[in-house]
Design brief:
Layout (H helix, E strand, L loop, with lengths): L2 H8 L3 E5 H15 L4 E6 L6 H9 L3 E4 L2 H9 L7 E3 L6 H9 L4 E4 L2 H14 L3 E6 L25 H13 L3 E7 L10 H19 L6 E3 L16 H11 L6 E4 L3 H4 L3 E12 L4 E5 L8 H5 L5 E4 L6 E6 L8 E8 L7 E4 L20 E6 L2 E6 L4 H5 L7
Parallel strand pairs: 1-16, 2-3, 2-9, 3-4, 4-5, 5-6, 6-7, 7-8, 8-9, 11-13
Antiparallel strand pairs: 1-10, 10-11, 10-15, 12-15, 13-14, 16-17
Helix pairs in contact: 2-9, 5-6, 8-9
Bound molecules: pyridoxal-5'-phosphate.
Amino acid sequence: MNYRELANKYGTPLYVYDFNHIKEQFNEFKNAFKAKKSLICYAVKANSNLSVLKYLKEMGAGCDCVSIGEVNRALKVGVPKYKIIYSGVGKRDDEIRDALKNDILMINIESEEEAQRVEFIAKELGVKARISIRINPNIDAKTHSYISTGLYENKFGVDVESAKKMYIKAQKSKYLTPIGIHFHIGSQITNIEPFCEAVKVVSSFVRSLKSLKIDIKFFNVGGGVGIDYRGEETINIYDYSKVIFENLTGLDVTITCEPGRFLVGNSGKFLTKVLYEKRSSKKRFIITDGAMNDLGRPSLYSAYHDIEVIGSQADVSKADVVGPVCESSDFFAKDRELPKTKHNDLLVIKSAGAYCFTMSSNYNTRAKVAEVALINGKDKLIRKRDNFNDMIQNEITCI
Ligand SMILES: *Cc1c(COP(=O)(O)O)cnc(C)c1O
């Protein structure tokens, strides 16, 4: 089915994901790491649709979760508990309790206070919590500042010195078992250097921990491998695994990876229809039925998404592609060379598989859109479009 037919069948705006592409990306990743013990835990926040999770689970993926909601999604589609990791700087008591009750592989600790909380709750439950500690190696991932996470000015993880104290303390605790170490320095990283530096720092730290008899079994390199949005150079996944292997020589660890964007980003397309064109004295605007609440990366990060017009390719000139939301940050592209469009022409916004639907909201009381999977040439609805009632069902009129 082509884009036009999909738009007619399901309506617009619409997300379409090519599951075969997800499979190719997953297999490429898996093959790059198959020479060593490894566990690939998909970063659920990139695209948490249950069908996406189930599909990856069937191929053997685990899940990296950043809320108990994501842990529950993983469990719901049958991801084995021993393949689920729970990360994040701010976990609530009830989230920690549920994670421990569900006996997931490990909780990733990001502060000293969090370690104390987990210990306290584990004691209450009478269990021993398996933990890893997230190291902030103070390395510049050279990506957009909003998605850089491995610098001391970022809120994530703890420095090596604090981590050492935390490991020693955890090792002595009756309610904690330190089994892993973790870092995740940022997202959409397109240069291998920051990864090399981080792996060096963290692997040498693991060696010093082993000499203290703290037995790190899981070496978690996080996610962050970038994808091609506009023809940029990206990291070769075999170079990436090689750098990791080289630094872990002689260490008996399972390499844990948390790719998100790499697996799903380029599987997705966002289909949106042209409502109108208009021109001011300064600009040409293409106004679409999709908006920033549906796909927010351009407004949030000034991210670039390739746009294809399905229709006539004539009369190309610069245009801003904008949505109906009442914000000037509601745009998909600025000053983009695009053909003249007319009412009901279809635009295909590329690279919309990661951090697009999952970041969508009901702002302006706009219904969240539908999602469709393409599997072996067949289209399947994997999320219904919200209706008005879905949006107001939890609200209470008290007057
Ligand atoms: C977001 C996140 C990831 C995934 O990042 P990608 O850039 O999508 O690969 C992995 N690990 C952690 C802890 C994260 O927060």
